[in-house]
Amino acid sequence: MKRLLLLNGPNLNRLGQREPDTYGTETLADVINKVKAVTDEYQYELEHFQSNHEGELIDKLHETEGEVSGIVFNPAAYTHTSVALRDAIASITAPVIEVHISNVHQREEFRHHSMLAPVCEGQIVGFGTDGYRLAALGLLKKL
């Protein structure tokens, strides 16, 4: 089982168009290519999935149990609100790295708390889309 899951939450399908001053101009396809370069180097297969729906993200976490070695996850706004995603992450064995493009701790107060961080292996924030690459690299080195 040498597979990594790249999971993206709501509005990340609009990368490159949505608030470029905050999220940059790279697209989700660019992010996937960055992570794929890392997984290829480590001879891992990359699976990627994006949804604007909380239940679909939970279903994907459940479906990949035993199928992936680790998960790089940008839960987007669900980071701050979803006990259901927290419980889903806690229920699986694959380590999860939480990623955020912007530094959420420099933004609005409501973005400062992650419901998911306590059940994730680590968290990378504020490095733009390079954070995904860093998360994949860190996770694969740890595996």
From TrEMBL:
* Binding residue positions for substrate: N74, H80, D87, I101, S102, R111
Which InterPro entries does the record associate with it?
A: DHquinase_II (IPR001874), DHquinase_II_CS (IPR018509), DHquinase_II_sf (IPR036441)
Oligomer status and interactors: Homododecamer.
Q: Which gene encodes it?
A: aroQ
- For the site labelled Transition state stabilizer, the residues are R18
Gene3D superfamilies from the xrefs? Dehydroquinase, class II
The name this protein carries in UniProt is 3-dehydroquinate dehydratase
| EC number(s) from the headed UniProt entry | 4.2.1.10
Carries keyword Amino-acid biosynthesis?
yes
